[in-house]
Amino acid sequence: MSGNICQRKQKETNMSQAEKASRFAGLHQRGNPLVLHNIWDAGGAKALAKAGAPAIATGSWSMAAAHGYEDGEAIPLELVLSIARRICVSVDVPVTVDFEGGYATEPTKVAENVRKVIRAGAVGINFEDRIVGGGGLHPISEQVARLKAIRSVAAEESVPLFINARTDLFLGTDPETHKDSLPEALERETAYAEAGADCFFVPGLTEASLILQVADAASLPVNVMMMGDLAAVDDVASMGVSRVSYGHGPYLQFLADLKKAYADAS
User: Fold this and answer.
1) I want to staple 20 with a disulfide (CB 3.0 to 4.6 A). Which of 12, 69, 94, 166 is the partner?
2) 120 pairs with which residues across the strands?
3) What is the strand order of the sheet 56-57 is part of?
4) Minimum mean pLDDT range among 9-18, 117-126, 230-239
């Protein structure tokens, strides 16, 4: 290993949590997106870090499924925190945790749960606006209150937590309706930015022209999920996004490879 690489590795090891958070924020660049292959355990995190990944992201669906639970906060909060803690102590790069709806509805309770994620070592979270276990999305005013509470508790912890504000206007909905949902999406982006969010996540939005409209209009970096027509990172980069993630795709591929290996050996 060269001297420069050794020095870089040592610098990564010595980075404080706040420094990791700042570094993570800097990885979000329009047209040169941060690529995150979402993982579900410390082993996967270590493998990606060794492969050169500059940051690690968990996926809630994958983490739940890998431990026998359904998605939608069915996996116990304490188990999520335990897994997150193991991931954070296993790698020297920044870690962001998919925290779904915060395991609560009321802002102060959400904030206290996020405090636990920060203390587990994470420097970022995904935070969605759908009503977990219910129907529809939180009204904008309510989601803004939840985001402000998270930002406040992060300040108390002296960590510039990177909040990836996810809207569920598009995921699982008819693509024919996505154009009509764009105005509300942009209204939510503006409100979430003012409340302290750092990135705007639009999973399920896959039409290039609509993604470009969001990226051009948004004040925040934009995150898309690689699915459907979104296959090549270079193509997505040209749409002006700053972050691409793979959701539960890597977990499904892992299961397929595992089953194939068993079938081939049988």
Assistant:
1) 94
2) none
3) 34-36, 243-245, 222-225, 199-201, 162-166, 124-128, 95-98, 56-57
4) 9-18
How far CA 96 is from CA of 56, 76, 108, 127, in Å, comes to: 6, 18, 21, 11
pLDDT number for residue 104: 98
d(CA 178, CA 242): 21
Distance CA 214, CA 167 (A): 12
Tell me how crowded residue 260 is: count the other CB atoms within 10 A of its CB: 10
**pTM score, whole prediction:** 0.93
Contact by Cβ (8 Å): 224, 202: yes
Looking at this protein, which amino acid is placed at residue 156? Answer: E
Q: Cα(126)–Cα(141) distance, rounded to whole angstroms? A: 19
